[in-house]
Amino acid sequence: MPMLDLSIDELLTTTRAVRKRLDLTRPVEPEVIRECLSLAVQAPTPGGMQNWHFIVVTDPSQREALAALYRKSTGSPGGQEDILKHMIAAAADEQEAAYLTRIADTPRYLTAHLHEVPVHVIPCVEGRAEKLSATRQAAHWGGIWPATWSFMLAARSRGLGTVLTTLHLDFEQEAAEVLGIPYEQVMQVGLIPVAYTLGTTFKPAARKPLEAVLHWNRW
Ligand SMILES: Cc1cc2nc3c(=O)[nH]c(=O)nc-3n(C[C@H](O)[C@H](O)[C@H](O)COP(=O)(O)O)c2cc1C
Description:
single chain; alpha+beta; 5-stranded antiparallel β-sheet
């Protein structure tokens, strides 16, 4: 698959959460998804367990069903809509409220268009985490995030945009039914919409200065 001309540092700094710039009309070849996932499974896994699975959803009715669960979650009490409304209401001034309203538009766009995104990738892990101790949970969840991020980086290097989402997990059991996942044995950890991007130039994010978060030798 053709690769974008990006240095490793550019790849690491410009793999952004893409929502409004997903090309909803351009098909994504199954081979490019396979290629990205074959790179993803080179990531570390706790104890070499490789207890990961990736469900690639391209069927329109399956995507619609997942998007409906995602929409239901955003509208639930305490869900994304509530959080966005509270954030805007708590803004210090009109300028900040206008800025937050603009920012809120982006997750809302994804909510409205998720069913149109040509590929949904659902990373899963064998075994449920609910009854594990915090230490065991760290390894359980930790087993899937490096591979998930590698997938997102590989996708970006091939001109695809992604965004890590977790909201549909409010209705994980219903999503498991949609996808035929054995819920008691296999846990979904997110849903990654994947599409070619509209344009390929992305900027690094604004971040707190490193000094504010860096602790050398001790807190
Ligand atoms: C663990 C995790 C869960 C997230 N869940 C969602 C989600 O459900 N929906 C969504 O639109 N974005 C979700 N995001 C994306 C973030 O809201 C945010 O847009 C992203 O991290 C990019 O932020 P940045 O522009 O500061 O890099 C999630 C991100 C992470 C790391």
